[in-house]
Amino acid sequence: MNGRSFKMLMDTLRRARRIDGMMPQLPPDLTNGRTRVLDTLYELGGYAKEDASRRRAVRVSDIADDMGATRPGVTRMVCDLERDGYLHKSASPTDGREVLVELTEHGLATHRVWYEEVYEYTALLLGEAGVTEHDIEVTVRTVKRLLEVVGEADLTRWQNERLGRKAAACGSAEE
Amino acid sequence: MNGRSFKMLMDTLRRARRIDGMMPQLPPDLTNGRTRVLDTLYELGGYAKEDASRRRAVRVSDIADDMGATRPGVTRMVCDLERDGYLHKSASPTDGREVLVELTEHGLATHRVWYEEVYEYTALLLGEAGVTEHDIEVTVRTVKRLLEVVGEADLTRWQNERLGRKAAACGSAEE
């Protein structure tokens, strides 16, 4: 593994940012950001009546944390999504200051069309293009490791220390 | 390959968007966007004196196309980068209306520190975490295939046709 390979990986991941824009258009009241809020809420278990065993209370802050987004941004999208009938908010029964969020039937149905039907079809096309389950597993594992490694490494500190040493080396050379 | 695997891949790629924000801080006059312009220019061969055989004329539109960004946005960043000494612009010798772009020595040196030193170090850490060259190859190939497949599939049309058929099915049920 060398810097060149790593760069190829980084460039590929940057290119991959286009992918959401290439997927089918959403209903006009759903931006990519709002769709991600819906999906994060679904993944965290905040859906209305489907499979009560997996359902759990989801707070706005849970969604923001999972998305790696700011709380005010997510709060705004949650309000818009409530107005358009995709989810509803309620006060927590245990703590009145806490707001819980849940998908409505409409939100759940939209999620189903978007993520199940379109994704199943795309998965089929990918399989036909020769991409295997194993390829996906390797890709997901590699990107996760990358995020873990970079998250733990504190590269900014490493760079500053390097720059510090460089400056020190220049200083001593002048003496 | 099923929709669930595909979704895992998409979620992973969305998470990977954080990666640039986790890399070391750039010099204060380099945003992530400007760094990408510098790197795209480098990759397209627009560097000043290094390896003349790989060097070639690069236009602003080449950079924008390669980045998948808008031309006005890239033009603005190119002007900022010229002002800060990272690149310089010149009129094309063959077509005076065309503007060619080239890295300065300062731009090339900055690129070297950023992409070579930091990337080599990160690649080392990734290797220590068990990520192999093969993992990177699979990841890069998988994401490229994904972008190709989705780019060619016209999923929006597929979805509209599906919605059309659904609407037609509802219509006939009402008769």
How many strand units of chain A? Answer: 3
Q: What string gives the helices and strands of chain A in order?
A: HHHEHHEEHHH
Might you state the CATH topology name of the largest domain in chain A? Answer: Arc Repressor Mutant, subunit A
* Percent of sequence in beta strands of chain A: 5-15%
Most extensive contact: A-B, 67 and 68 residues
Q: Largest beta sheet of chain A, briefly?
A: 3 strands, antiparallel
CATH-level-4 superfamily name of the largest domain in chain A = Winged helix-like DNA-binding domain superfamily/Winged helix DNA-binding domain
Estimated radius of gyration of chain A = 22 Å
Shape of chain A: globular
Lateral arrangement of strands in the main beta sheet of chain A? 1-3-2
Distance between the termini of chain A: 39 Å
Average pLDDT level of chain A: 84
So what's the oligomer here? homodimer
Number of helices of chain A: 8
SS-based structural class of chain A?
mainly alpha
CATH C-level label of the largest domain in chain A:
Mainly Alpha
Low-confidence stretches of chain A: none
CATH architecture of the largest domain in chain A: Orthogonal Bundle
The helix content of chain A, as a percent range, equals: 55-70%
Total of domains of chain A: 2
GO molecular function, one term (chains A, B): DNA-binding transcription factor activity
Pfam family, one (chains A, B): MarR
